[in-house]
Q: What sequence folds into this?
């Protein structure tokens, strides 16, 4: 009961931080330099883990499908299943969990350290708004970077799947590419990218929220960082279920 | 002020900052109950009290970093507790704070740190800001260190850069949170000298929160003793010594003694020249 109340309190805290972030985003002048810095370190700095994860995930999916479908004579459908699985689910979700771990933990560690050394207070005391300086650029950077990283992961994931399918099933690369293009609709791609926008928001807002609420010196920063990684992973995986339903519902209305 | 530390503040003068019936608690832990305090223009007021009693909470409430639970806090005749937006910004330009660990931004150079409030408050052109940075670094006795990083500075240097950053926008009041804690004796002298110098030369009002009694005796005009969740005593050092208040006497005797007037006068000078 106590834990549930605590969780509810945090949800309220995140919502209130979101409101302040939204308000500060649209107050001029826009802090372009801070945003560019964040896109660089959070987004561009994460491309390698996104690529590596996607490559091997696509490959292992292809292997499972190619071998698993063989008794039914359906191995030729491997490309369809791999591309759908990657673009709609594993591309956005795995990218969010991994990038979220890297980036979100970094946000919490940075902002948490600033908080315990009173640098967050100092920002306010010196006439600026900590939400505007710290949270807004990070949230925007993640909302922009996550879909881009997801597109990259989608492409690389399908590529990894293609390599294995060519080897296991014996299709040509041309066959695989045609099959993927034939299978995927624009709606499928938007389904995955739409979710990644939400994931980007969750990663940044949780990372910042936990950082801003860090107490208790360096030990507190360590605890907070762990909390963030767990919270982001769970939020991404659980929200994915509901976001998927949401996007299916949206698709059926259009 | 250095020649006469006992000058009582004129009674008819209006305080520029006042706390009235302020309550503050963090969850179960009560920090203040019915706190009253007046601060007058141009004085150095030292707030003393044991560690962990929340002395610095008062400073943070004064500039709106923390909210009081009830009561009134006024600065320059305006209520702080309900201040928002531009008003709060304007108040923070007039009231600066030196944080305990200096709270320099470690992602920025010394110059960028000091320029931060100048940029946020729209103070002058970039060239004027550069001049101001050089000027305040000179004032704290560390000219030419613009390009250093906070990680390259010692604790005492950090405090002085923090002070330079606080005075960059020419505040009228400076709040010092444990300015001498954790510093070596030489740096303690420097910081105390700077506090006095800012008061004498710029007419800055200072509120110093400390448990360092030597520093308190050195710089203060009046002292306020935080006891039993409120100001148990407020008055000059002489009044404090004469007060029939066992807890305060115990605290005062923790300090090793009072510096002579001449020594105090010398501090303002050599605090920056060393």
A:
């Amino acid at each position: 009961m106590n834990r549930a109340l605590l969780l509810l309190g945090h949800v309220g805290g995140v919502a209130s931080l979101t409101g302040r972030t939204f308000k500060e985003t649209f107050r001029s002048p826009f802090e372009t330099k801070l945003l560019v810095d964040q896109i660089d370190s959070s987004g561009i700095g994460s491309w390698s883990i996104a690529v590596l994860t996607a490559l091997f995930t696509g490959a292992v999916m292809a292997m499972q499908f190619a071998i698993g479908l063989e008794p039914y004579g359906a191995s030729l459908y491997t490309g369809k299943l791999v591309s759908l699985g990657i673009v709609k689910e594993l591309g956005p979700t795995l990218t969010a969990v991994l990038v979220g771990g890297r980036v979100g933990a970094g946000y919490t560690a940075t902002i948490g350290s600033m908080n315990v050394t009173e640098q967050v207070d100092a920002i306010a005391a010196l006439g600026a708004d900590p939400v505007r300086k710290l949270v807004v650029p990070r949230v925007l950077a993640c909302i922009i970077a996550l879909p881009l990283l997801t597109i990259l992961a989608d492409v690389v994931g399908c590529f990894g799947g293609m390599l294995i399918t060519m080897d296991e099933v014996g299709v040509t690369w041309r066959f695989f590419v045609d099959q993927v293009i034939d299978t995927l609709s624009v709606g499928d791609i938007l389904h995955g990218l739409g979710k990644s926008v939400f994931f980007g928001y969750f990663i940044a807002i949780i990372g910042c929220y936990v950082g801003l609420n860090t107490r208790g010196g360096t030990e507190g920063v360590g605890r907070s960082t762990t909390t963030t990684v767990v919270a982001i992973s769970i939020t991404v995986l659980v929200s994915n279920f509901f976001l998927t339903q949401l996007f299916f519902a949206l698709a059926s209305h259009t | 002020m250095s020649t006469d530390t006992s000058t009582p503040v004129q009674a008819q003068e209006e305080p520029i900052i006042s706390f009235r019936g302020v309550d503050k608690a963090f969850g179960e832990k009560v920090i203040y109950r019915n706190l009253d305090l007046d601060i007058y223009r141009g004085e150095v007021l030292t707030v003393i009290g044991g560690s962990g009693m929340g002395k610095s909470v008062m400073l943070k409430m004064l500039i709106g970093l923390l909210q009081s639970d009830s009561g009134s806090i006024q600065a320059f005749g305006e209520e702080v507790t309900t201040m928002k937006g531009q008003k709060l910004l304007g108040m923070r330009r007039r009231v600066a704070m030196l944080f305990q660990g200096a709270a320099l931004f470690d992602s920025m150079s010394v110059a960028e740190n000091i320029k931060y409030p100048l940029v946020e408050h729209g103070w002058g052109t970039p060239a004027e800001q550069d001049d101001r940075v050089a000027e305040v670094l000179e004032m704290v006795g560390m000219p030419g260190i613009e390009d250093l990083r906070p990680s390259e500075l010692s604790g005492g240097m950090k405090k002085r850069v923090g002070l330079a950053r606080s005075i960059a926008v020419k505040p009228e009041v400076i709040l010092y949170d444990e300015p001498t804690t954790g510093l070596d004796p030489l740096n303690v002298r420097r910081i105390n000298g700077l506090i006095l110098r800012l008061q004498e030369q710029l007419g800055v009002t200072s509120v110093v929160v400390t448990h360092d009694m030597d520093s308190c005796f050195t710089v203060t005009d009046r002292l306020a003793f935080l006891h039993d969740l409120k100001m148990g005593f407020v008055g000059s050092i002489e009044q404090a010594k004469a007060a029939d208040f066992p807890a305060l006497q115990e605290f005062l005797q923790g300090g090793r003694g009072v510096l002579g007037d001449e020594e105090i006068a010398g501090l303002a000078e050599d605090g920056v020249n060393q």
Q: What stands out?
A: Chain A touches chain B at residues 114, 117-119, 121-122, 124-128 (CB under 8 Å). The radius of gyration of chain A is 21 Å.
